[in-house]
């Protein structure tokens, strides 16, 4: 495709200059480009395909960057990026040094607020709107939030507060009935009921009459409405939950009908109260495979556009976790699984089908998930909360207050631990160890291999007590070293025990350490490796063993502050260790998007860097 219109869009002003026919063509070109670029770079396909018309309409009606659009999660902002001067860079999206897959203020003045985690948009937009009010700035602030993200508690905290704001504040609710999987919960049912209710259809007829009296762009809105296919069903109907919260509800409007959308947006612009516009869209719109199975195309790696098939589909830790949990649930009726809207990503699809009664998708509500699981635990169940490391950050107080302090037995399956690659800084799993390390009496396992994960999960459920985390990275396991039989649950040591240097690590970095030892060996040196699997509490025997080495080098794929390495050193100090001790961890910085391989390399965690670092150290101290 030549992208005849899209390639000429330098800013939203160019969108405003297009005719209705050109707008249709623009939407087609955007969809084509989205499929093209995501099939190569990976990314959030279904969500972006669903908001093409909505994004174009917003840039027709509002004046960005003076008006601020705050995207919730931000995974649906690719069209916005293309319409705001970044079309020519879109092929770099999610690539190292290229555009981010999420809104970034440092990337463009059109990105009003950074995101990546869900349910923040209403609070952020409200803050922006209040700041504008204080500065006498009359521009609009718009939060665009999906129905899935509206299951997150923070969204309600924002709504509860927003009703007091008076002007130029708009929430656009993009309702596609989907989170990543089918959306869950009472709010999802409530939104369907708004779409289905007979009163709503009656209301629609009444609305046109009411609106015919309101002038818009010199013409009565009613006239505009008559021309539009499905009409805009907006009126100040005072009985939705949103109205009760102080936001005027408008909608629902067909989110793929450009004329309806623009009419609706122009109408909410006139609202004297904060407004909520309910837009109904189809996730995956315009790409057959994504329309039929939007969950599988929510976040994808590269794929074949013609067949929809992923380019690579190796077995990963999440799948192993899910299989093992099913097996354990079969043997013990107390085992249950909790997810915060991440059923597919965390490998719980089969569990959700096989053990429906013991599977709980609570929506994008990690705080609730932790406390809910704690409730299950104190009443005799064996809950496992499967959660991405980065999203566990949401439930930190709950881990301390609701789980640990009352010694509830909760197992966390901490997925995507370590660097995650192309999603970048908002999604890196680099904080969980520091967070969990600080909580008294917590047990943490960080296996390197699939069998280690299975082992750790079984021990965590049936032998350990209190808060227990089993953490594992995105993707698959590495090649096992020669002579490997089974991963130990506590620690193991391999290589030359007479070597001067001991390299300690855990998790997938062990693969790099094994390769580093080979490099060192080829260069005539010797290296011994200690691999920890249980990283909290650290085994005293491991510390004793390590204290016999004159030089210790600890590599840790996590934050330096609160690290296992720091705790290990404290324990060595207690043994009066007098050798040299060096730590390579993530030092006080956020890690940007790049492939996992390149990220590990940039952080000094790849085999070459490890070997170099160990040898440099030997030269310095030798
Ligand atoms: C706190 C948090 N938990 C989980 C996620 C993972 N996640 C990203 S998008 C998404 C679904 C969002 O659904 P919705 O807001 O309806 O947007 P849609 O993709 O349907 O357009 C989830 C669960 C996240 N980004 N943040
Ligand atoms: C936007 C979001 O938070 C999720 O969609 C996330 O990007 C999924 O990541 P994975 O691809 O690792 O499942
Ligand atoms: Mg949705």
Question: How would you sum up this structure, described in words?
Answer:
This protein is an alpha/beta fold and 622 residues long. It folds into four domains: 6-197 and 240-300, Thiamin diphosphate (ThDP)-binding fold, Pyr/PP domains (Rossmann fold, 3-Layer(aba) Sandwich), CATH 3.40.50.970; 198-236; 317-471, Rossmann fold; 491-621, Rossmann fold (3-Layer(aba) Sandwich). Helices cover 40% and strands 16% of the residues. The protein has 25 helices and 19 strands. Helix 23 (564-574) links the parallel strand 18 and strand 19 (580-586). It is globular. The relative contact order is 0.08. Mean pLDDT is 92; it is low at 201-236. The structure holds thiamine diphosphate, 1-deoxy-D-xylulose-5-phosphate and magnesium ion. Magnesium ion binds next to loops.
Give the fraction of residues assigned to helices. 40-55%
Poorly predicted runs: 201-236
Portion in beta strands: 15-25%
The average pLDDT score comes to 92
Instruction: Label the structural class.
Output: alpha/beta
- List all distinct small molecules, including ions and cofactors, that are bound in this structure: thiamine diphosphate, 1-deoxy-D-xylulose-5-phosphate, magnesium ion
The CATH superfamily of the largest domain is identified as Thiamin diphosphate (ThDP)-binding fold, Pyr/PP domains
Biggest beta sheet summary: 7 strands, mixed
Total domains, how many?
Answer: 4
CATH topology of the largest domain: Rossmann fold
Shape: globular
- The counted number of beta strands is 19
For the record, the CATH class of the largest domain is Alpha Beta
The number of helical runs is 25
